[in-house]
Design brief:
Number of helices: 15
Strand content: 15-25%
CATH architecture of the largest domain: Alpha-Beta Horseshoe
Structural class: alpha/beta
Strand order of the largest sheet: 9-10-8-7-6-5-4-1-11
Radius of gyration: 21 Å
CATH superfamily of the largest domain: tm_1862 like domain
Shape: globular
CATH topology of the largest domain: pyruvate-formate lyase- activating enzyme
CATH class of the largest domain: Alpha Beta
Bound molecules: iron/sulfur cluster
């Protein structure tokens, strides 16, 4: 029986498509918007019944741009959530695009129990926002930050580094502005440009993948090289550390007591349900996902067919990789108790290999990524695959 879950609610709508983005997105003006919101409510109600109305421990509205929902849409979503679950979350996060947050919308989210705003600032440099194809301005992030603080919310700032033309000095300026604001939490991601089409392409009108691919190839050619990106990561570690933030996950820093409880649920391999297009779920050891294409998602829910179970998923290796992302690392004793001695010996053997090249530190039953390992985590993770 599922006792408590983390609940992720996906709102795919965006005012425009940022050309680097691979999330499950769709235009805010799509003719499918009302139908999507109705379908989402039906999925929430149905999942609540199937799972026996569990308690929601943490709630996360992600996207897309959930902050652009209208107050009536937010209220209807709240009704569905309250009817489906015991809604007593310790943390309720909303992802927000800085240009879309206004008082009326915020009030509606606050009525739903909002405690935390995750603001997609990305950069405070107008050139950076232009290079990323973002439509907001640095001042929008500053105003949205003030609005969130005035409402008593915790705030996370998302920043991207390694955008075309960015310099180390420019990145230091971004980090300086961010830390001067004093958010509770910061997520810093290197710009990674995938060169294969993602599932949300059919949701958008226009030139489709060929246009995006052209943009990404040109942007990728103008990015700092790997050594430059590695330096930027170290600059972030140093300057956020000096500003009092703990580097608790590869891409995440927090003030004491302000780690993201919802995301910790992912990294600790707990139970979570994802609803909406493209949302992933991990319940009782099984992973599954919804279609990213809006029409496919709607027809799946309307037909009542189950979510596609991920047969390729390998719970032991996923649990090891997720735990290693955290500064607390992997406890091989607990891991053996959960997955057996054989699985633990396999992981220990793989980690010994990367210990030689200083990517991992093994001490007794604990394994942790080193500073170099955080930078080259994929080199470690690839060795843990079955
Ligand atoms: S606003 Fe966010 S989710 Fe939407 S396209 Fe841009 S990066 Fe992606």
């Amino acid at each position: 029986m599922i006792r408590g879950i983390g609940l992720y609610v996906h709102i795919p709508f965006c005012a425009s498509r940022c050309p680097y983005c691979d999330f499950a997105t769709a235009p805010a003006t799509t003719a499918l918007r009302d139908r999507y919101m109705e379908t989402l409510s039906s999925e929430i109600v149905r999942e609540g019944e199937l799972l026996g109305h569990p308690r929601v421990r943490t709630l996360f509205f992600g996207g897309g741009t959930p902050s652009l929902l209208e107050p009536e849409e937010i209220a209807r979503l709240g009704d569905a959530l309250r009817s489906a679950f015991v809604l007593r979350p310790r943390e309720v996060t909303l992802e927000a695009n800085p240009a879309t947050l206004d008082r009326a919308r915020l009030e509606a989210w606050l009525a739903l129990g909002l405690t935390r705003l995750s603001l997609g600032a990305q950069s405070f440099d107008p050139a950076g926002l232009r290079a990323l194809g973002r439509t907001h301005q640095p001042d929008d992030s500053l105003s949205a930050f003030e609005v969130a603080r005035a409402a008593g919310l915790d705030v996370n700032l998302d920043l991207i580094f390694g955008w075309p033309g960015q310099t180390i000095a420019g990145w230091e300026r971004d980090l300086g502005i961010a830390t001067a604001l004093g958010p509770d939490h910061l997520s810093c991601y290197p710009l990674e440009l995938r060169l294969d089409p993602d599932g949300s392409i059919p949701n958008w009108p226009g030139g489709g993948w060929p246009v995006l691919e052209r943009w990404r190839r040109a942007a990728s050619a103008a990015q700092p090289d790997d050594a430059g990106i590695a330096r930027m990561y170290r600059v972030a570690e140093r300057s956020l550390g000096h500003a009092g933030y703990r580097h608790y996950e590869i891409a995440n820093w927090a003030r004491p007591g302000k780690r993201s409880l919802h995301n910790l649920g992912y990294w600790r391999d707990r139970d979570w349900l994802g609803v909406g297009a493209g949302a992933h779920t991990h319940l009782a050891g099984a992973r599954s996902a919804n279609p990213v294409d809006l029409r496919a998602y709607i027809s799946r829910i309307e037909s009542g067919s189950p979510r596609a179970v991920d047969d390729d998923s390998d719970p032991p290796s996923e649990a090891a990789m997720l735990a290693l992302r955290l500064d607390s690392g992997l406890d091989l004793g607990r891991y053996a108790a959960r997955f057996g001695d054989l699985a633990a010996a396999r992981v220990r053997g793989a980690l010994r290999e990367v210990e030689q090249v200083h990517l991992v530190q093994l001490k007794g039953r604990s394994a942790r990524l080193t500073a170099r390992g955080r930078l080259l985590a994929s080199e470690v993770f690839v060795r843990l695959l079955p």
